[in-house]
Amino acid sequence: MKQGKDYQIDERVKESPKTVAATMVDDGSRKTYMMCKEVKLINPRETGNTIKALIFFDTGSDCNYVTESIVNKLKLRQTSSNIRMVITGMVGTRKCESRKVTFGVQTLNGNVKNVQAYTVDSILERIPYLVNEKPEKGKWGKPDVLLGVEGIADLIIRNPIKQSTGEIVMETEVGVVTGGTRMVKRGIAEVENNEFHKFKANANITKKESQLRMDQIEQTWKLEVIGIKDLMTEYQEDKALEAFQKSLTVNSEGRCVVGWPWKNQEITPAEGYGLALGRLRSTIRRSKRSPELLECYDEYFKNLLEEGVIEKIKNQNETSRISYLPHQAVVTPQKSTTKLRVVFDASAKTNEGPSLNECLYKGPVMLPLLIGILLRARQGRYLVIADVEKAFLQVSLKQEDRDVTRFLWLKDKSKEAIKENLVIFRFTRVPFGVVSSPFLLAAVIRHLLSEENSELSKEIAENLYVDNVVLTSESEAESTKKAKEAKELFKKIKMQLREFHANHDININNEQEMTDETKVKLLGIEWNTSKDKFIWNWKIPQGGLQTKRQILQFYAAIYDPLGLLSPIILPWKILIQDLWKKGMSWDEKLELEEMRRCSELEKAFNQFNVIEVTRWIPQEYSEIHVFVDASERAVGLAVYARRSSSMTCKPQLIYGKTRLIPKRESRKLSVSIPRLELLAVTLGIRALEFIRQEIEVRKTYLWSDSACALHWLRKPPVGSRYISNRIDEVRRCKGIEFHHVRSTDNPRTKLHEDFSQKN
Asked: Where in this chain does the record put each Reverse transcriptase domain (predicted)?
């Protein structure tokens, strides 16, 4: 028996799966021949580029497939974004990448029929088929193309006819295709005996955008239980890293030079000149209402040209890859440095082919966890933050990869965007807006820090988020010293640290590099440097919140990655879940009961319209206590740091989370409260494990008001996989003391109840 394969195409969003299955069985007396035909395939863009291939006609499939070998030989262009494919066989599962391509099939009358197909490394092993010129003779071949029902429908002339000998005959535009079962005498057949072949594919087709948005938000409730979805295969990450390591060099200036991590060296992004020109003309029309914006736009490009970040195209000769990037201006008047930033759209879609982003690997996320950085930022008595000036534009781009970053601008900004008034630029550095740019920036900085191998470089590596550096110290002198050394360290790769903010004065190189601002952003959280406190404030819109859209927009805008505000956010989550369950549309006005609930929440929320939390938690607070609780609507946890040497000190809340329970259609399907309490314990364990990995902890404790859940930890019930799986996870976590706490004393319970009572 030959090994079969299962293919599953995953395009992120699942609908009803579309399946293709083909089997061939040979028992020695009956021979089953697959419906195959040798035809000529053509590259639609290069009609002289042809190849002879074996097509397998499969009426059980509604997708077409073509092997990578054929794609490479014909030099076919990708026509849509990459998708992920999971191949399952008898020896396990592996993941690979698939593309959508278009090729031509030459018919008997000389015409060409275009076919769209997904790429696979192989369709089937060698299979038997009948040669129509000699229908009595069988032949073995390995299919290069699988045509599904849509592909067959474009080629078929007459419905298949069953012959008296048992074969099926189908007349198509590429000739007669014969297959089916034939009775043969032993010893005469050319095919081998006792073989079984199987090819199976499940293709999940993307839903409409509106439905996709609804599914994503609905999935929020289902994913409230901790779980992480893998959005990139290890294969893709390895390929991106491999491409980076091969391309990394250092030029004569000491600047790092990298190339794009191409998914396929043969693939070419769409040129996109027309789209780039259209976007430019739209920008110019809008700018006429704001002449100062056009002036800033023009000045921005002049500065980039002067700094060597972009260059004019000197030679118009065609290269292997050319792509024009549309762009638009983003104005941020509240920023103290760059008020205007030009954003380039490397995901722009055209009918010519894939976008630049679709041709590149995104690369692995090389950032430390943001929550971990924020936890460490609360531990130092003195905190200093800075960012890398125009970080992405400090990494040079290989000469041969620059032409895919072309863009259009005006020679004279006072004139129209016509051909004679256009100038073509391209980037010499890595631009922001390309999917690979964050990975390339992070990889370059990691390379620098690994080569430096000092205590400071290790601290920066643990607390660097994109272009933001966060450093803590226990004295002002140490903080200033670290800031100076960090600035010098980044200079080695031609990067400039700027915009230093701290809760004390810093003087670097005899220059006052501190800004006068006292309210700054620490990784998205407002930080008052003079008070050394985190600050949250909000304002409910005039007229209140009256629709599902307004409610979701309001509470989703409150940025709280540490979950310190989770008790007061939870009622809004529950309200949205109820509105979702009722099937209310986005802009439908709330009914009377929901309006009353919303009004009560607004009144209670107005009592908390400004919340301040002390940033600094002394290192002596090395005991970590997590309190967990559950109800029919949600599970939650609150993590406190406590000073182990004092019984009177006030514990500090450092982390919190709430997770909604998905609403069930029937109470019979609902999870019992004790099981939810056990789930809360499991989430608490995960939180403790995470915190122990991110900061130094001496002792850890978990508190629950569920005697049942704690009893299960000591003596699990028999026969419940749900319970046993969670208990196994809890027991794998060592060094945690478990304690019971009365519900009236459980901070996790009280945090929610105190807010609810104000309603």
From this structure: 313-527
Nearest-angstrom CA–CA distance, 20 and 146: 10
pLDDT in tens, 279-289: 999 988 888 78
Q: Are 523 and 556 members of one domain?
A: no
Instruction: Answer yes or no: pTM beyond 0.90.
Output: no
Q: What is the mean pLDDT of residues 297-314?
A: 93
167 and 282: one domain? Answer: no
Instruction: Count how many domains the chain has.
Output: 3
Pairwise CA distance, residues 602 & 381, whole Å: 36
- For residues 629 and 685, state if they share a domain: yes
| Res 135: pLDDT | 60
Report the residue count for the chain.
759
Distance CA 280, CA 303 (A): 19
Q: Which residues of 684-694 are buried (b: 16+ CB within 10 A; e: fewer)?
A: bbbbbebbeeb
Contact 111, 63 (CB under 8 A): no
Letter string b/e over residues 555-567, b meaning 16 or more CB atoms within 10 A of that residue's CB: beeeebebbbbbb
Strand partners, 141: 127
Euclidean distance between the first and the last CA atom of the chain, given in angstroms as a whole number: 69
- pLDDT confidence of residue 220: 46
Query: pLDDT (tens digit, 9 = 90+) per residue, 317-331?
Result: 666 789 999 999 887
Query: In the 8-state DSSP scheme, what is residue 666?
Result: S
Domain closes at, from 527, 559, 575? 527
Residue 695, both tokens: 């900061």
- 532 domain residue, yes or no: no
Q: Which has the closest alpha carbon to 183: 29, 75, 331?
A: 29
Is the pLDDT confidence value at 665 over 80?
no
Same domain, 522 and 650: no
- Smallest CA-to-CA distance from 618 within 481, 478, 474 is with 474
Which residues does residue 129 pair with via DSSP β-bridges, in sequence order?
34, 139
Domain that holds residue 25: 5-203
Convert 192-217 to b/e letters by CB count within 10 Å (16 or more is b): eeebebbbbbbbbeeeeeeeeeeeee
**Please, are residues 67 and 154 in contact by the beta-carbon 8 Å criterion?**
no
Listed in sequence order, the residues at least 6 apart from 546 whose beta carbon sits closer than 8 Å to its beta carbon are 589, 590, 595, 598
